[in-house]
Amino acid sequence: ASALLELQDMEVAFTIGKKTYPALQQISFQVKEGETVGIVGESGCGKSLTSLSVMGLLPETAAMTKGGIVLDGKFMEPASPERWGAVRGKQVSMIFQNPMSALNPLMPVGKQIAEMAMTHLSVSKPEAKRLATEMMVKVGLSRVERLYDDYPHQLSGGMMQRIMIAMALICSPKLLIADEPTTALDVTIQAQILDLLREMNRSTGTAILLISHDLGVIREVCDRVIVMYAGYIVEDAPVGDILDHPKHPYTAGLLQSLPGADKRGRPLYTIPGRVPALADRRSGCPFAGRCPSATDLCESVAPDLLQAAAHHRVRCHLYANGGRAV
Ligand code: SF4
Ligand code: MG
C-alpha cells in the first residue's frame, strides 16, 4: 500500500514572548492506506501536538518551523487554512477524549451526524438522515430511531463516543485520528470502543492513528507503534516487536509499567523522574536524566533515529553500531 500520510522531518515550535521552543523535532513517519498506527508516550511527549499538526489545528502560539506533511499525495501548506479545511472531516477525521466537549449540546445527536453528511457529501436531508441512522447501527448503537432525537446529555460516555465515531466516519475518511478516545471511559466500555475501532478499520479500510499514553490500549488496535519522548520519535516498530523486544530504554520502561497477570498483587512500576519541560530541554539524549543505561556520551550527544532492523527504527546510542542488543 502507498503512503496515505507522510510527515517529513517536521519541526513544530512554540513562541513564548521572544523565545522559541521546539516542541517536536525530526518527526518523520508514514501511515499507509488502511494501516493502524499508534503513538505512545507520557503526557508532554508531543503525541497530541503531532496529531493536531496532521489536522492543521496547531494552537495559535505554535507553528511548523521545518519539514512538512504530505497527505494523500498533496503537500499540506501549513499556512493555508483553506487547504486544511478541504480535507478535514472528509479525508481526515478526528475523535477526542471528551466527546461531550466536541458535540453540540443543543442539537440532537442523530442530526449532528446527518449535518456532517450534508456538509461534506452534498446529499439531501432525508438521504443524510438515512446515512446517519445506518452509521449509528454500524457503530453498535441500538434503538437508533429513538436515539436519533436524543441530546448529548441524555447519553452515556460510551454512547457519546460511538456517536463521535459515527460522525468521524460518515464521510468515509481515509484516516481517522483518535486522541485518547477511551481514557475517560471505564474498562469494559473502553474495550468495546477499541474493538469497534478495530472493526471499523477492517470493514471500511479507514487507516487509524491512535494516540494513547497506554501501550495496552495501542496493542488492542494497532499494527505498528511509534514511541515518542520529549518531542522526538524514539522508537518505531511493529507492535509485536515492541512488546516482545523493545529496544529503546524508554519503551522498555513503558512496557514494565503495564499491568500484567504476572505482576498481580505487586505495585505497578513507574519510570522514575519526569518528561523535561519545554524550557528545560538541552543537548544530549533527552532521556539521559531518567535512563538506567545512560553514559557520558548520552549527556552530551543527541542520538539519531537509526534503522535497527528492516521495520524497526530506534533513537539510542546503544544501537549506533548496527543494532546490537542492550
Ligand atoms: Fe539511554 Fe543513552 Fe540510549 Fe538515551 S542514548 S536512551 S540516555 S542509553
Ligand atoms: Mg495529549
In short:
With 326 residues, this protein is an alpha/beta fold. It is built from twelve helices and twelve strands. The strands form two sheets. An eight-stranded mixed β-sheet has the order 6-7-8-3-9-10-12-11, sandwiched between helices. It has a four-stranded antiparallel β-sheet with strand order 2-1-4-5, covered by helices on one side.
Record the SSE blueprint.
Blueprint lengths: L2 E14 L2 E14 L3 E5 L6 H9 L6 E10 L2 E3 L4 H7 L4 E4 L3 H4 L6 H13 L3 H14 L5 H4 L9 H13 L5 E5 L7 H18 L2 E6 L2 H7 L2 E6 L2 E7 H6 L4 H8 L39 H5 L5 E4 L2 E3 L12
Bound molecules: iron/sulfur cluster (SF4) and magnesium ion (MG).
Quick tags:
326 residues, Rossmann fold, 12 helices, 12 strands, binds iron/sulfur cluster, binds magnesium ion
Integer tally of domains: 2
- Do you know the CATH topology of the largest domain? Rossmann fold
The CATH H-level homologous superfamily of the largest domain:
P-loop containing nucleotide triphosphate hydrolases
Report the CATH architecture of the largest domain.
Answer: 3-Layer(aba) Sandwich
What profile does the largest beta sheet have?
8 strands, mixed
Indicate the radius of gyration in whole angstroms.
21 Å
Structural class of the secondary structure composition?
Answer: alpha/beta
Mean pLDDT equals 92
- What's the β-strand tally? 12
Strand order of the largest sheet: 6-7-8-3-9-10-12-11
